[in-house]
Design a protein that fits this description.
- The structure is a single chain.
- The protein has helices at about 20-30, 45-50, 65-75, 95-100, 115-130, 145-155, 170-175, 180-200, 220-240, 245-250, and strands at about 10-15, 35-40, 55-60, 60, 65, 85-90, 105-110, 160-170, 205-210, 215-220, 250-255, 260-265, 270-275.
- The protein has a five-stranded parallel beta sheet with strand order 2-1-3-6-7, with helices on both faces.
- Helix 2 (about 45-50) packs across helix 3 (about 65-75) and helix 8 packs antiparallel against helix 9 (about 220-240).
- The chain has two domains: about 10-130, Rossmann fold (3-Layer(aba) Sandwich); about 145-275, 2-Layer Sandwich (Alpha-Beta Plaits).
- Strand 1 (about 10-15), helix 1 and strand 2 form a beta-alpha-beta unit.
- By secondary structure, the protein is of the alpha/beta class.
- It contains ten helices and 13 strands.
- About 40% of the residues lie in helices and about 25% in strands.
Length: about 280
Amino acid sequence: MTDQGDKQGLILIIDDDVDVTEPLKGYFTSQGFAVVITANATDAARAAARQRPNIILLAATLGEVDGLEVFRQIRKTPITAHIPVMFVASYRDAMRQNQLLAEGADDVVVRPFDAEILGLRVRNAVKRASREGLTEPRTGLPTGPLVVEKIEETRDRAQWCLLDLNIAGFDAFRARYDFITGNDVLRYTANTIVEVVAELGESDNFVGHRQETEFVVITHRDRAQAIRQALEERLNEGLLQFYNFMEREQDYVMLDDGQGGMEQKPLMSVNITEEAGA
């Protein structure tokens, strides 16, 4: 995943027309956005799940593929359902604006368009999503009401399981290093969770960022144990790489105790608990 810490955010452009994508990439990069482009309609939904952008610019037509089908796939995938999607339509697609908006698109822009106006509409959509508290800005994962809603749904459904993951020792790590490195840890954790769920879970599984060091995975009960084991192994090993060699060897960090002395604090590790549906 591209760093969500970019000043403006991350834009995923799904379009196979280089006459559209290259100018857009140049413009938005100059405006401080990170930009990722995919021209492959069949991989578009997976690319959105991997990248977790702040907004998606989606061609209304991708070769022989209707962009609306790609949009529906993005919307039905829990990890991407909350991401704002703006259709980029050609003049011949302009008559479909009502249909695209009725399906739930956040906006439709018709070529040719003014780059400055498009930029304003993109920034407004990103800010609106941020104000609504639907996306955790550091990790790009669903948060707030979306997580609460999914957890409540899980508790009423049989054969589902909630994995609640917490990073123990994070506060001490951030005190030892800094907020920027702490954000790197959160992004690494989010990326690892998404990768594991993609490998071992199903497309309808959900990953959310509940609070600062708390993440949730909602999966089928028969997949939960394998996902939990993989997360514990990968994260407990991977989190150690954020420390220097000496700290890894001694298995603790030293911090000021606030009284003129020093105290030992344990290294980061993950704690995962399970809650099965009814």
